[in-house]
Amino acid sequence: MKLALKILGGVALVVAILVGVVLWNTSQFGPKTDAQAAITLPEPPAVDVAAAAESLGAAIRIQTVTYASGDPKPGADQPWIDLQAALRERYPAVFAKMAMEKVLTHAMLMTWTGTDPSLPPVILMAHQDVVPVNPGTDADWTHGPFGGVVADGYIWGRGAMDDKGSLIAILEAGDALAKSGWTPKRTVIFAFGHDEEVSGRGAQEIFALLKSRNVTPAMVLDEGFAVLYNFPLTGKPAALIGVAEKGYVSFQITAATEGGHSSRPPRDSGAVRIARALIALEEKQMPADLSAPPFNEMIQAVSPDLPFMTKMAFANQWLLGSVIAGQVGGDASANAIVRTTTAPTMLTGSIKDNVLPQRASAVVNFRIHPNDSVASVTQHVKDATAHIAGLTVTQYEDGIGSEPSPVSATDSEAYRVLEAVARATGGGEVAVAPALVIGATDARYASAISKDAIYRFAPAIYDDVDLNGFHGTNERLSVDNLGRMIKGYAQIMMALCS
Questions:
Q1: Are the CB atoms for 44 and 334 separated by under 8 Å?
Q2: Which residues pair with 365 in a beta bridge?
Q3: Residue pair 342/282 in contact by the 8 Å Cβ criterion
Q4: What is the pLDDT of residue 36?
Q5: 48-51 long-range contacts, CB within 8 A, separation 24+
Q6: What is the pLDDT of residues 353-374, one digit of tens each?
Q7: CATH 3.30.70.360: does it fit domain 246-395?
């Protein structure tokens, strides 16, 4: 009996110590504090936001739609010519201050040389093109997709959020600063690609040109994140600053067979082998990493707003890591930010229901986490399907291939300024966190000139309805958000370049 009591006492002590450690770790888990983070933002010149809204509406009415790599084709580029002429007319002060270069005919590289050209420049990005509207859906829009209507507190139309809103806001901010007499100490560069939605060759060539000039920036800022009114992890507002973006590669898996009549099917046909390959890739996902940046830093930054049990789990991954990984893996949005994702997208086989295919194939798209690379994904696909005979794995010839971007610094002056602007945009109390952009932006090409100073953020507040407009029906930008963006971009230039 005494022995049993001693054992129970020992177990109770171990449990008490374990509970104590868990609670202590939870209490200590939170945002990194930095005395240098407190930045007083400058007050920018006043802007007529209503007039800016009309300018955005006018830009939306100019249909700079790209459909495929190489757009706009020669002879079909009048909308880009018209857009740039309209921008010059609307923003004469900033165009007078900035040297303008055309890259690949329509990409815009604008340079406002600072009084101290030896300082690394600040580069603000946006793109001129927009995605198409799905045929037959025009009537589903509250206002025409290319009407550029300003109504009910919003500017409506394709490109309002992606990305003519940023384009207009940056130029509005620059024009207001130019008219006010402000002069940058650090050079300011605007980089406006013309084909981001299809290939980004304009931005790629802009950064190749800047690399040839040995330009190393203090900051590159592009689209990507904003203040989210309802951040899924917390249910509260959170400002996310993209410090990295995923890479992109697709593979074609092919099985060649003799084909024939479906009345005499062989065992283990080409189509079956393709199915087995897809199941193998589905069941053997690339590993998740909850400890790698930017995910770990994001969780720490938003931890004060997390439910207690969620916070406790993340604070004690040594004990609960496998549980978290299982939960994260079951949510598509969460899964996408902790691992390289696997997505079968295209299947081909026979052209008739009673004919066996001579060539069955599948295309699988991977969005590459910063932990991985095109080479490591290639090896993963080959390893996962090696047990299936008769398969050929090749990189999909019609797809793009890009490595994940480097993860940018969160302890730099540039990040602290963005953090201050993001917090001010969200009303002063919002959590600000670094995050991983799971789509592709023109900023991926900036890695040619910077490894740790590329960010993706627009100083706006988006709710769930707003977010549904990205590439969707009823894309719109609130007039209030346009005002926030103009102010935020002006503050970024003034804070970093004065």
A1: no
A2: 250, 343
A3: yes
A4: 47
A5: 49/479, 49/482, 49/483, 49/486, 50/479
A6: 999 999 999 999 999 999 999 9
A7: yes
Let me know: does 183 contact 97? Beta carbons within 8 Å.
no
Report residue 409 as tokens.
């610094």
Segments making up each domain of the chain, as ranges: 49-132+142-243+405-497, 246-395
Residues paired with 344 in a beta bridge: 364
Instruction: Quote the CA–CA distance of 182 and 177 in Å, as a whole number.
Output: 5
- Which two three-digit tokens encode residue 100? 């303008």
Quick check: is 162 catalytic? no
Q: Which of 172, 169, 178, 173 is nearest to 93 (CA)?
A: 178
Q: Using 50, 70 and 90 to split pLDDT, how confident is the model at 1?
A: low
| 8-state DSSP, 37 | G
User: Catalytic pick from 71, 163, 172, 196?
Assistant: 196
Is 48 noted as a catalytic residue in this protein?
Answer: no
DSSP secondary structure letter of residue 458: -
**Given this model, what pLDDT does residue 463 score?**
95
The distance in angstroms from the start CA to the end CA of the chain is 78
CB–CB of 224/242 below 8 Å? yes
Distance from C-alpha of 144 to C-alpha of 157, rounded to nearest angstrom? 7
Q: Are 57 and 150 in contact (CB under 8 A)?
A: yes
* Per-residue tokens: 263: 């009345």
Q: Is the pLDDT of residue 3 over 80?
A: no
pLDDT in tens, 298-327: 999 999 999 999 899 899 988 888 888 888
DSSP class of residue 476 equals E
Joined together, the tokens standing for residue 86 give 């309209």
User: Per residue in 390-405, is it b (16+ CB within 10 Å) or e — as a string?
Assistant: ebebeebeeeeebbbb
User: Considering just the CA atoms, what is the radius of gyration of the chain in Å?
Assistant: 26
Mean pLDDT of 448-458: 97
**Whether the domain at 49-132+142-243+405-497 and the domain at 246-395 fall into the same CATH topology:** no
Cα–Cα dist 373/371, whole Å = 7
Query: Which member of 129, 162, 163, 297 is catalytic?
Result: 129
What CATH number does domain 49-132+142-243+405-497 carry, 3.40.50.300, 3.40.50.2020, 3.40.440.10, 3.40.630.10?
Answer: 3.40.630.10
**Dihedral sign, CA of 176, 443, 216, 88?**
negative
The contacts of residue 135 (CB under 8 Å, 6+ apart) are none
Q: What are the respective helix, strand and coil percentages of the chain, to the nearest 5?
A: 40, 20, 40
Written as one letter, the residue type at 317 is Q
> Residues with Cβ < 8 Å from 268, sequence gap 6 or more?
389
**Of residues 315, 90, 125, 320, the one with CA closest to residue 220:** 125
pLDDT at residue 35, as a whole number: 42
**Burial class (CB within 10 angstroms; exposed 0-12, middle 13-18, buried 19+) of 191:** buried
Specify whether the CB–CB gap between 254 and 260 falls below 8 A: no
Q: Which tokens go with 142?
A: 């509250």
